[in-house]
Amino acid sequence: MVKLGRCIVFLACMSITAQAAAQSPGDLKGTLIVLNKNGHNASFIDLGSGEMLATLPTGQGPHELIVTDDGRWAIGTDYAGGNSLTVFDVENLEVEKTINLDKYPRPHGILFLPGQEEVIVTSELSSSLVIVNFRTGEVVRTIDTNQNGSHMVAVSEDGRVAYTSNGNSNSVSVIDIPGGQFIKAIDVPKRPEAISTNKSGSEIWVGSNDESVVSIISPQDESVIAQWSGFEWPYRILLTDDERYAIMPDLGNGKLRFFDVVSRTELGSIDLRQASPQGVTLYSDDRTLFLSLSAENKVLVIDIESREVLGEYLTGEAPDGIAYSPLVLRKTIVYQ
């Protein structure tokens, strides 16, 4: 494994040396970016060397994170008290800007729209989706979800339809993005949080915390296509880019569960006990997974097909949202 040493920073910058352990996570290249909820900052980690390249500040309580396909820009939601978006210049290891969302409090779920100039963000307290041009910092428009507690968002690949998980209304909102309007609400098992969709938008994958299930729902006729039980807190749902596998961290049970999307069967799980598995993201090969363990302040590297843990990296305090950038950065700087 690769395990990174902890860093204590006083005023300037310092280099952090990776400590080699028994097994390498493989030939990984690029940069892993991790939001640390309790540290109110983001860790930038070089995957090849295991070095911590930078620790940059965010707003209060950062949660979800996305990165442009070219790896240049990362945007995180400052959910728990921040009411903002933090935009990172990944290439230069800098905070580019902070976008104020005080009018749209508790921003949480975030995804890119086609073209990757605009992001779509849930505002939990205003029951709305907020579309923001992250380059200019302008709020382009808002769309009401007409439900309470809109926490996470999923978007079809063409950017035409969005689905929000509405934890306080036990529903999923269906949103016409180009038309800027709410279409309907679909009743789902209680306290939905995790949500995803396939590229066509023909399936809604939703995790329901109070009823301990994950369901696949048809947005057309609202039927349940498939459902799995035995969850305690199905925290996130991640589909591989080729839509072959679904990976679901079960925060309450301390497990990472793997499913075959085509056959709708569970393939197995990894027991993580009290490590608090939370954020998930994919490496460029679509078969290597990064998983944040909030209680252990680290990220695991996992092979999806073998379900083998390949390595780990240390992070800041209480890591959650994570994202991958293909950029290989050379300088090793830590800011405080």
From TrEMBL:
Q: Which domain of life is it from?
A: Bacteria
An example of a Pfam family matching this protein is Cytochrom_D1
User: What protein does this entry describe?
Assistant: Uncharacterized protein
The signal peptide stretch is 1-20
Q: Recite the UniProt keywords alphabetically.
A: Signal
InterPro entries recorded for this chain?
Haem_d1_sf (IPR011048), Host-pathogen_enzymatic-act (IPR051200), WD40/YVTN_repeat-like_dom_sf (IPR015943)
